[in-house]
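Notes from the 1:1 (GR / supervisor)

We went over the backlog. Supervisor wanted to see one worked example end to end before approving the batch request, so GR pasted a single chain during the call. The sequence is below; no edits were made to it. Supervisor asked that the structure be written out right there so they could see what the output format looks like.
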Amino acid sequence: MPEVLTNRTDKICQLDGETTNRVLRTAIEERAAVQVHADCAGWELAGCAACIGEDGSHLILELENADPQTQAILESSPLQLSMEVAGAQYCFETRFADQTAEVEPGVVLVLRPATITLAERRRSLRRRLRKPTEVTLQASGPDDGWHCTAAMLNLSLDGIACRIRAQNAELVDIGQTLRVGFQLDASAPALDLNGRIISITQGGTPEHLVVGLEFIVDRRLEASRATLRKALETTY
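Structure output shown during the call:
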């Protein structure tokens, strides 16, 4: 039976460059909504935008309902941007870029961040395993044969983190839905849940990556909540 550490988490995680690139590509594909905040002489100015593209060193945003005065203030101030991508919240700091190319009204460029931060917004019991438990991951589509085994690193009511081989991680991406199967110990029932990939990061094991999945709220999860909670609250 695995030894565990159980605690509550409410933290942020700095992503590596490769994972940042994955998230930003997904944000552009989804035209993710972006909250733009600027601290101007002690008072905060906020605006909304959509992430619509990139040109290498810049992200291209389309501001929503920004009057010229508001846009001018935003362009002259340090910015804090936050956005939701594939169900997860990300944030980073940046500035507007000096624009030399002509763009449509309301379209602006900001400096593309080298890394962004994943914010774990929920507070929940989290079970961190000292001895990894095997997890089966497989694509949820009926015609997709991708599957692999993974090592569970931690578990909460909201999601799971697993270590998988880099060659398997290359075939999945942030926002993709996977079936997640695992059994915490021999006496516990096997669980079969749906999860959405929210992060893919470098781990401490060579040629492996850590995949973070957020459980999708559906019938499978609702039927398994009691089992998950009992596992998280149990001490050994």
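Supervisor's comment: The mean pLDDT is 79.
Batch request approved.
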